[in-house]
Automatic annotation (TrEMBL):
It holds the Pfam family P2X_receptor. This is P2X purinoceptor. NCBIfam families: P2X (TIGR00863). It is found in: Cell membrane; Membrane. Keywords: ATP-binding, Cell membrane, Disulfide bond, Glycoprotein, Ion channel, Ion transport, Ligand-gated ion channel, Membrane, Nucleotide-binding, Receptor, Transmembrane, Transmembrane helix, Transport. Its main location: membrane. One of its GO terms (cellular component) is plasma membrane. It is a multi-pass membrane protein.
């Protein structure tokens, strides 16, 4: 019975006892300096990095974007295959509508008047089919000194080794492109359309042209300026083509005190221009234009087109003040400070201060709980356990 009452009494003490943290005042300039310096580091981290740099008081949302482009410009060419030719946007923008990208033709190899017939292949003879053409297994004269396989194909075959050293459409560098970009941040119900009338003065904006210094917000770009901003030369790149990225950064601060939200443009070449590290440097593809002769025979003009593909890449994150992240980060800051206050970092300075100063310089309130027991402070362990060890066996005195 007594044992049960003692057990209940112990349980009540365990549940109803009230505990308070113990406080030690260490009169040491070195220890105090380390303590205050640690507090200062925590405050600088919370204010400088979390609040100012990372904007921890904001909610964030990712951008949803759509892009349309419109290219303008014209050029002339004069070659033996095409003679005098005028090129407009319907000729050099292929395809007319792209998915966040557009292609501008700059150089071509033309194989005109092809028909379905038999002709010698442009390679050394191998009676086995090479997978590209329908080889008939017959060796015929390709020239006075060379025989090749006879094939059934569109004849005459294309010879794509004689690429012009200078771009046929060199004037393409003066073409302009309008990039209409619509972005939305659904969480904040924010919508912005970058178009010719975005500034409210349609006539003025239609005459503007992007310039990094004088007009960084204009959505109309000249192609040679895009290429030069990416660190490339337009005429050199136009010979074999390539891929350029137009990067539009919509990272915005939507708080009312942060100002307006406008895109930031940057440009970068995306393909590998080094021929030693690329299987097929540049960018090219083939397309054909079909015709019918008066007697009904089908013919075509095969064009191997080289050019520059421009990929429009839109990205960004918007932030706006939110009460939930503010409370979370404020609570984390207070937790850091309380951790520093409760558990000072043990350093050699603290250890030395405790070892070489008497217990009389450590101001604390002490209360002995042990009966008939003389308690003495343990100067070595007091820094870590905050307790006083009794000289009697199995007895411990606590500090209040």
């Amino acid at each position: 019975m007594c044992q049960d009452r003692g057990c209940c009494h112990s349980c009540l003490h365990y549940v109803l006892d009230y505990e308070t943290p113990k406080t030690l005042v260490i009169q040491s300039k070195a220890v105090g300096f380390v303590f205050r310096f640690t507090q200062l580091l925590v405050i600088l981290y919370v204010v400088g990095y979390v609040c100012v740099v990372q904007k921890g008081y904001q909610e964030t949302d990712s951008v949803i974007s759509t892009v349309t482009t419109k290219v303008k410009g014209f050029a002339y060419s004069n070659t033996s295959d095409l003679e005098h030719r005028f090129w407009d946007v319907a000729d050099y923008v292929i395809p007319p509508q792209g998915d966040h990208s557009f292609f501008v033709l700059t150089n071509i190899i033309v194989t005109p008047n092809q028909t379905q017939s038999r002709c010698p292949e442009v390679s050394y003879c191998d009676p086995r089919s090479n997978g590209r053409l329908s080889t008939l297994g017959l060796c015929v004269n390709y020239s006075d000194t060379q025989q090749t396989c006879e094939v059934l194909s569109w004849c005459p075959l294309e010879i794509d080794t004689n690429l012009p050293k200078h771009a046929m459409l060199a004037a393409a560098e003066n073409f302009t492109v309008l990039i209409k970009n619509s972005v939305t941040y659904p969480k904040f119900k924010f919508h912005r359309l970058v178009s010719p009338n975005m500034r409210g003065i349609r006539g003025r904006c239609m005459r503007c042209e992007f310039n990094r210094i004088t007009d960084p917000d204009c959505p109309i770009f000249r192609l040679k300026h895009i290429v030069s901003e990416a660190g490339e030369d337009f005429q050199s790149m136009a010979v074999k083509g390539g891929v350029l990225g137009i990067l539009i950064d919509w990272s915005c601060d939507l708080d009312w005190w942060a100002g307006k939200c406008y895109p930031k443009y940057s440009f970068q070449r995306l393909d590998n221009k080094n021929p030693n590290n690329s299987v097929a440097p540049g960018y090219n593809f083939r397309f054909a234009r079909y015709y019918k002769t008066p007697d009904g025979e089908e013919t075509r003009t095969l064009i191997k087109g080289y050019g520059i593909r421009f990929d429009v890449i839109v990205f960004g994150t918007a932030g706006k003040f939110g009460i939930v992240p503010t409370i979370v980060n404020l609570g984390a800051a207070l937790s850091f400070l309380s951790l520093v206050n409760s558990f000072p970092i043990p350093t050699p300075l603290q250890w030395g201060a405790v070892m070489h100063r008497g217990a009389s310089k450590i101001k604390t309130k002490k209360k002995a709980i042990a009966n008939d027991c003389a308690c003495v402070p343990n100067r070595i362990l007091i820094l870590f356990t905050f307790s006083m060890y009794c000289s009697c066996p199995h007895k411990v005195c606590s500090l209040v």
